[in-house]
Amino acid sequence: MAESAPTPPEPIRLIVGLGNPGPKYAHTRHNIGFDLVDGLAQRWRMSLSDQKRFQGECAEGMVAGQKLYLLKPHTFMNQSGQSVRAVLGWYKLAPSQVLVLYDDMDLPIGKLRLRLNGSAGGHNGMKSLIAHLGTSEFPRLRIGIGRSPDSGIPKETISHVLGRFAPQEQRLLSEVLEMAADAVELALRQGVEKSMSLYNGRSVPSTLTL
After folding, report:
1. How far apart, in whole angstroms, are the C-alpha atoms of residue 152 and residue 77?
2. pLDDT tens per residue across span 18-36
3. Could you give the CA distance from residue 30 to residue 188 in angstroms, rounded to a whole number?
4. What total of structural domains would you count in the chain?
5. Do residues 44 and 15 make contact, with C-beta atoms less than 8 angstroms apart?
6. 30 classed as catalytic
7. Of residues 30, 123, 132, 160, which has the active-site annotation?
């Protein structure tokens, strides 16, 4: 008997950017996931609005022929999974249909890393998602924010991720976020693995580096 063809992966229906709410944290390194969701909403002409049932800002629209939802949890980073779980329950979505966007100190500014699954890697927002979803089997896009020279000191690490980008780094951000948005769009249209093959080796052009 012939083997049945493998089941194609379910399409991504929810894109979540991780961050902390409020002006105190706006545009900090830890909030780059929020910044990317804002950029995607603008690109796709989707309007984010507060949704109490989801404990966050949410938007919906059609992208690549599919209904798509955007989410910025307002539960603070350590409880991000509460908000994501609420959206999945309301729209009857599977964890594998979520693409999570978040910061990564282990990548330099200008680098991206897409994965189909994986551990939290010490990121508290991802720890919360994995705990609330009961699985680590969902795609994610890590956006490099670089390390502090004193990253071995916990207090300095916190100051680094909750701090804003230096002026010379600001020059890179629009390019980084544009590249990340392109990677997300390709993942929606042609699949996460296709986007991984094209973007995991890329970086912002060297002429823009610090």
Report:
1. 21
2. 999 999 999 999 999 999 9
3. 24
4. 1
5. no
6. yes
7. 30
